[in-house]
Amino acid sequence: MNRTNKWWVLCTVAVLAGGCVRRTATFTTVPEGALVYVNDEEIGRTPATMEFTWYGDYDVAYRLDGYETQRTHSRINEPWYQWFPIDFFAEVLWPGELHDHHDVPTEVLAPQAPVQRDELINRATELRNEAVFGTSNANTNASGTANQVSWNVQFDPWFLDLPNVKLKCCSSVLFIPGLEA
What we know:
The chain has 181 residues and is an alpha+beta fold. It contains 3 helices and 11 strands. A 4-stranded antiparallel β-sheet has the order 4-3-6-7, with no helix packed on it. A 3-stranded mixed β-sheet has the order 5-1-8. Strand 3 and strand 4 form a beta hairpin. The N and C termini lie far apart (97 Å).
């Protein structure tokens, strides 16, 4: 084998056997055991470690029963050997593996405040009104309570036997043209 061929073989082996960078981040909370969501993907329970590809900003949420959900923003910065053009040598030519580990600052979770009964009922009423009327205060009377709206709709199968009636059905409401309530 001549000198040029040896050089090409050596370069090929160096590139194929090149290094890699393993990137991990660890999330911790007080108390431990909270579910960690990074960019809306569940990672696991704290202390949780995830592997990542890209440096930058991450949206992090911590959830634990009995504690307030904590939403935060975490920035993971690249080390000096990941700066251009040095990153080429770390990713491709370095003969081993580099491990870049980040410990995200520990989050202290606050205990969840007990919900007052009246507050819970008011919130449930608001949500119901949003679902029914499309707005949270659409049908609220002067006393601040929601108006009661009830319809007794009954579907009778004998409608299906009428030859000149065309039925339109939407969800659980039956519409018959020409028939008004």
